[in-house]
Amino acid sequence: MDQTTMEENAHLTLDRGSIPTEESNNLRLQHLIKKVGTEAVRVEFDKQQEQRDLLQPRTGSVSSADFDITLMMVFFRHLTPLHIGNKLPVEVDTSTAADLTRITYFRNKRAHSDSIDDKEFEEAYSIISKAIIRLGGTRFKDQCEELRHKRLDANLPPAVKGTYRQLIEVSWFNVICSS
């Protein structure tokens, strides 16, 4: 790896919150699905009155806030007429079922990977964000955009930030020594 490439990569790493770009991309997608996507799925889940009636206990109450995204998807699959598939739907299909399938598809795909390159990240982020906005409404647009550019280590304690910086320095030292 030449000096110019290392400097470019160092710049990318620092811009992404001291986490390598491919890992940062993966973390952003996982966070988008788990935090923002789950809230958008809850909006759709709450629209399904018949489904909610089946879930009500004899005493007390239940709320979509009590469920994670996986459980809500199970309910969609088994208690509604929506067909939630396992394959990525065609782009022109913007139905509720297709958007729920998109979120499930990328959730499963990201759960089995640690990194994702920039091109695949941009495509996936766009698909997931559009699905989230269609499911939950335009109020989710700002959340999706903010997360795309937010520093991932902005709220980490100084000791943890220092550890990241040391790992990066050791990684760059190993790259330089092996060149």
Features:
179 residues; mainly alpha; 2 domains; 69% helix
Describe the protein.
There is one protein chain. The protein contains 8 helices and no strands. It is mainly alpha-helical and 179 residues long. It has 2 domains: 1-18 and 153-179, no CATH class; 20-151, no CATH class. Helix 2 (21-47) packs antiparallel against helix 7 (141-149) and helix 6 (118-136) packs antiparallel against helix 7. It is globular. It starts with a helix and ends with a helix. Mean pLDDT is 79; it is low at 5-16.
Percent strand: under 5%
Distance between the termini: 7 Å
Largest sheet at a glance? Answer: none
Low-confidence stretches: 5-16
Round the Cα radius of gyration to an integer and report it. Answer: 20 Å
Q: Could you give the order of the helices and strands?
A: HHHHHHHH
Tell me the count of domains.
2
Structural class: mainly alpha
Number of helices: 8
Kindly state the mean pLDDT as a whole number? Answer: 79
Q: Helicity level, as a percent range?
A: 55-70%
Shape: globular
How many beta-strand segments?
Answer: 0
